[in-house]
Design a protein that fits this description.
466 residues, alpha+beta, Outer membrane efflux proteins (OEP), five-stranded antiparallel β-sheet, 10 helices, 12% strand, elongated
């Protein structure tokens, strides 16, 4: 009896070994980054040899303002995109679990019972009831073509990693957006102060010209011109306040909150990190979500090609069943055990044209993914180069603008003293004030440019260390 049970098992084993002999080691290779992908010199003129970079810092080390850090923490916890990214990762984990469980056969238990009795309407004979039962357990294992299970599992792993990478991309974008809005608000606050100061200066000048016109020392044309300029500055004040309100609303939406006051500091609270080198090319490859996504797509295309190649080989299906029953032709009590095992191999014969075409398509898709990966690396290097260049230029301009503000401050002081001592035209004072305020506006804008360039570099290097 034992020998009889072992025969189908041996047959299954022989068929499996037979199928494996026709398989290729190509189906069991793991993805490796192509050796011809170019990574050297991708930073262009900003190439550095340092091992440390802004990409090695976390966002907390870059954005050190406590008020800003609080906003970022709230955003990471409450933002809808971040929550959905976590849920998609959970979905991918379940999909990967299913892919792993495909290696295990499926088992089914379907008990059944039947009671039958014959009735004679004339009560000539009495018939006994016939009772049958069956307690079957069946197992099936659809192995598919050789190597398909493994490559499906590998592709599921890549998909899971893609979603984790997508979450990092969302986080980097969220942190950058919150920081950008925060410092835009700080910039607008300072611009509003200067604009309101300008409006007050022109208000005083308008009042003075009205008095001079009443005394016959000015005319309506001069007064009307000054009045128009005053109105223009007042509209600028309203426009800045409206921009502040709009950004506060947008920031509240990003945080997943209703509109409210956004507590903030000044532009001076931003301290540029001491580490401003870009690091080696591998830093970008390991940190930038878009580059990693391109490589994940390349890995998925690699396993898709393996799956297409596995279609050339036989499909292996194994099933087995066993049951305890008393229904074996004639009802027997007590019941007996019945066992069965079946293994089949299905080798494509007349479908190879379609299979070969699908394999050629998968090879082309792999080449496309390789090109996209290379292009993503080049794009990453150019963005890092541009951000570094912007930081360099902003710092260089900052020193010159600071000197300009200092010189115009001296000029205004001298003009005010001259007006006080000689009574010269007050327009000279207004002109000096406007020149100084304009330079101060440029100073604020340049500081914001430096901050924005640092935020851009933070993103260009992949959102920092996690």
């Amino acid at each position: 009896m034992t020998y009889r049970l072992m025969r189908p098992i041996r047959l299954i084993f022989k068929l499996a070994v037979f199928a494996l002999l026709f398989s290729s080691c190509q189906l069991y290779k793991n993805y490796e980054r192509p050796s011809d992908i170019i990574t050297d010199g991708i930073y262009g003129d900003m190439q550095t040899a340092g091992d440390n970079s802004l990409g090695d810092l976390s966002w907390r080390d870059i954005f050190t303002d406590p008020l800003l850090q609080n906003l970022i923490e709230r955003g990471l916890q409450q933002n809808t995109d971040m929550k959905n990214a976590d849920l998609r990762i959970k979905e991918a984990d379940y999909a990967l679990k299913c892919a792993k469980l495909a290696y295990i056969p499926s088992f089914y238990f379907k008990p059944s019972g039947t009671v039958s009795k014959t009735w004679d309407p004339w009560d000539r004979n009495e018939y006994a009831a016939a009772k049958t039962y069956s307690l079957p357990v069946s197992a099936s294992w659809q192995v598919g073509s050789i190597g398909s299970l493994r490559n499906n599992k590998k592709k599921a792993e890549v998909t899971r990693d893609q979603l984790r990478n997508a979450k990092q991309a969302i986080q980097a974008q969220l942190v950058a957006s919150i920081a950008s809005m925060y410092y835009n608000l700080a910039m607008l606050d300072e611009q509003l102060v200067l604009t309101e100061q300008t409006e007050q200066n022109w208000g005083k000048y308008l009042e003075m010209q009205n008095r001079l016109m009443e005394a016959g020392q000015s005319n309506l044309a001069a007064v009307a011109s000054i009045e128009a300029t005053h109105y223009s500055i007042q509209t600028s004040v309203i426009s800045i306040k409206n921009s502040i309100h709009a950004i506060e609303n947008a920031l509240a939406t990003l945080l997943g909150e209703t509109q409210g006051e956004i507590r903030r500091g000044s532009l001076a609270t931003f301290q540029a990190p001491a580490v401003c080198s870009t690091g080696m090319p591998i830093t970008i490859l390991d940190r930038r979500p878009d580059v990693r996504d391109a490589e994940y797509k390349l890995a998925a295309a690699f396993y898709d090609k393996n799956l297409a190649y596995s279609s050339f080989f036989p499909n292996l299906n194994i099933s087995a069943s066993g049951q305890f029953t008393n229904n074996i032709g004639a009802i027997v009590n007590p019941g007996v055990l019945i066992g069965q095992a079946v293994a089949t191999l299905a080798q494509p014969l007349f479908d190879n044209g379609r299979i070969r075409a699908q394999y050629k398509i998968s090879q082309a898709e792999l080449e496309i993914a390789t090109n996209d990966f290379q292009q993503a690396i080049i794009k990453a290097g150019n963005e890092v180069n541009l951000a570094m260049d912007d930081i360099y230029n902003a710092r260089k301009m900052q020193g010159l603008i600071d000197k300009q503000v200092e010189s115009l401050g001296k000029a205004l002081d001298a003009t005010e003293k001259l007006y006080a001592n000689t009574g010269t035209n007050y327009l000279n004072v207004i002109t000096a004030q406007n020149s100084l305020l304009s330079a101060q506006m440029s100073q604020i804008a340049n500081r914001m440019d430096a901050i924005r360039a640092t935020i851009d570099l933070y993103q260009a290097l992949g959102g920092g260390a996690q």
